[in-house]
Each structure stands twice: as structure tokens, then as C-alpha cells.
Amino acid sequence: MPQNRALYIPGSTRPELARPSLDTRQVEEEWRLGRWKGITRPYTPEAVEKLRGSVRIEHTLSSMGANRFWQLLNSRPYIPALGALTGNQAVQMVQAGLEAIYVSGWQVAADANLSGNTYPDLGLYPSNSGAQIVRRINRALQRADQINHAEGENGAYWYVPIIADGEAGFGGHLNVFELMKEMIEAGAAGVHFEDQLTSEKKCGHLGGKVLVPTSHFIRTLVAARLAADIQGVPSMLVARTDAEAAKLISSDADPRDQPFITGERTTEGHFLFKGGMEAAIARGQAYAPYADLVWCETPTPDLDEARRFAEGIHSAFPGKALAYNCSPSFNWEKHLTPDEIAAFQQKLASFGYKFQFITLAGFHTLNQSMFELASTYAQQGMPAYVRLQKREFQAEKAGYGAVKHQSFVGTGYFDQVAQVISEGESATVAMKDSTEAAQFRRKVEVSVPADQKRQALKE
Q: What pTM was estimated for this model as a whole?
């Protein structure tokens, strides 16, 4: 075997085609960049280089997304996002002007997992399901980009960063390591993990949550960061704590957890835990050096609690970016006035919550909109659908394009592919004699500035 393993490709007569793995000096230089200010790695560049292998494989979408998210994080008051359940939902989000996409494990469990089952958010679905949704979303965005590029249109930046739900890791630290790698290979810009016991994992707004010791979750974050470093991707890592509402912890092994453990135990062997904001802040401070953003899952949309958590984290880590779940599990109008709701995200941003997302937006939009159509269609027949079509026509001036569904999914794009293959002589192109070409006006512009889209939708 050649001495220079970084340039060696088994069976290749042209080793210069290989992209060499970064050496330790390059890794050290990368870690000195401002991007990594305040990030702790309890391992060496030598360990990373040794584990990378002889050839560095590029993960373009993941790297692009992570770098873009970092830029947005440092140039926007906050980054708003919605949880996408399908590739087409993600396309609509980008077309409407959003600059990031969230992938929720709850939604994967409910309607987008590889087992084909409907599950509650209890960690029951196959662990590679989330990565598959990330991959599907990226492919949908890629197709939208290809269609627009082939038609000479530009304006929308299609490859927006995707932040995905890594749940509690689906096992031990090696499982976390492999899951993080899979998310990167699927094109995720970042992943969040939560400090729950995997075998008892629950939605953050359900009861029965069992925390792991603080030290255990720190190793979860280390495993995820190590995976990203080995992949050569500056992934965004989000640390979530469920300590505000948790009542159980799996072990009393970490002294940092002792102030919140009562000493009593359950029949399963778990220790009773005194959850609350004090516990959440203590854990958030412990996690902050290992993550890019810190997130405290909360039971209500409470700005005073959000401020308290932010102040607690920033007292030890000034300027640390925070994440907030603007959850559909909250009954928003029960807790806040319309004016308070309108100002809620700006207030959060002033506390340092830089990434704000509605986790289950895709699930609720899909279900409510279909129920509304189905109920009116059941009573009225075709007028119900025609009203939907009229709303689609009205939304076109804001940039909506799916009313012309044939074009939207790429029929015209593949007509162009066919013409190139046939040297312009194909007689079987699809769009020319389609009902869409005959009955729908050709769209003049796909991409509209976000402020114009909002104004058009208001009108």
C-alpha cells in the first residue's frame, strides 16, 4: 500500500483524482476560525484526522446549509422556520420567502417514517427516517432549482439550511455518532438532540420524560460534533434540555444533578427529579460549550420564563445563540393577547433567541386544509374545489406556482432533457399539447421579493 494514504484509491491508476483528507495542521487552523469561538472539543485534531480515512468525501449540501445558517444567524435578528412534512411543503416555504426549514421528529413519527406507521412521538419509528425526510426535502428543492434555472428564472435561493430533529439519539453515543453522519449525508445543515433517556423518549409536551445525567448528554453532543468533524462539515449543533418539565432522571451519577434529585426512586429504578427553570438553566450552561445553540423546551409561551432562561445562559456565556419552539402544543390565544402574539417573536429575538420555529406546522396545515376542502366538497361538490383553485390563482401574484402542477413538478424540464437527447427532434414532448398549456396562463415570474409577497397576500 502506498505511503501517502491520503492519495490512494484502491484499484485506481489515477490517484490524483482523490481529494486528500485534511491533515492535523489544517484541522487545527480550521478550529481557530471565528465560527468555532466558544466551542469546546475534548478531542484532538489528530484523532479526527485518524478517523477520517484516506479520502475526504464532500458533503456539499450539508456544508452549504451549515455555512448559510451561520451567516443568517449573524446577520438576521432571528431566523423563523416552519416544520416541513413533505418535499412540496418545503418548496412552498422557500417560494414564500422563508430562509430555513425545520424537520420535526414528531411529524416524522406521525406521517413520514420508513415503517409506514402512524406513531406518537415516543421514539418508535426507524432511526433513519428523519434523514430520509431531509434527503427528500433536498431533492425537492433541487428539482425546483433545476426547473427555474432551465427556464432562465432566478431570485429564490432554493438550498436553504435544514435543521433536523435527532431526538434523543436512538441509542447510545455510537448511535448518535452514526445518526449525525447520516443526517449530514442527507444534507442537513444542523441537528438537535435532547437530554432524555432514549428508551423512555417522549415529546417535550408529554408527561413521563426521563432525563439522562448531565455528563451523559454532554457525551451525546461530543459524539455528534465528532461525527461532523470527521465528515468535514461545520454542522450546526443544537442542545435541547427538557429539564423544565421533567420529573425523572435515570441516574444520580453526576454531582451537577444532585441538587435536583430527591433520592426517591420509581419502580423502574429512575430517580425523582425536581424540574423547573433553575434545573434547565443549570443544564443549559453545562451544554453551552459543546453546542452552537441552546434550547429549553417550555410548557407555555411565557416571555418571562424565556427571558429568565436567556439571562441564565448569558450570565455564563454572553451572546450564546438560543433556539425556541413556538409550539402548536400551546393554546396561544389562551395565554396571550393578539398584540402580544404579534410581538412575541421580536421579544424573543431581543433576548437572544436566534432560531424560532413552529415544529408541527406541516402536520397542522396538511390536516386542516384537507379537512376544510373535504367537508365543503362533501356538501357542495365541485364549487368547493373551484374556490380552492381561485385562491391558488390569487396567490400567484405572491409567487405561488403549484396551481400549474405539471410545470411545478418538472414536466417542462424533462421536455428539455428529451429535446437535448433527441437533438431537438422529439415528437413526444409532454407540455406542448397539455391541458395546462391550453387553459392556464404562462407564469411570467416565479420569484418575488419577500416583502412584495407579504403585501400581495395581504391584498
A: 0.89
